[in-house]
Amino acid sequence: MKIFPDGSIQGGYPKMITSLIDFSFIRSLVADRYSTFGHPCYDPPSLFLLDLFRYIDGHQHMSKFLEMLRDKDRGRAYRIYTGISMHHIPSEGTFSNFRIRLGESLYNQIFHTLVDIFHKLEMITFKILTL
Question: Which of 27, 56, 73, 131 is least surrounded, with the fewest CB atoms within 10 Å of its CB?
């Protein structure tokens, strides 16, 4: 990961965030909410990361964020760092069902913990300290 003199990051914030933190712990927090039967689902860390990127980048509406995510170029970094393919992008309903499956309390607890981590690291304010 390279930070340029102007404070921008090679690969952007999605790369920085996914390089610093292993989000696989989310799977163990939500494992009891999933069945071993049924169709393959989206990876829970991927959905949390997408929602977090939406929040960090100031997209108030999921529909606008997903529109950008579907764009071949503008959504590339988000897709790469969340493990989502161009041909398998979640819908707004996917995020709604995900919240329902986890329950609003658990979802908010995990999401706000992630936001708090990034706030404490001063990543949400986009201030980066370098030596």
Answer: 131
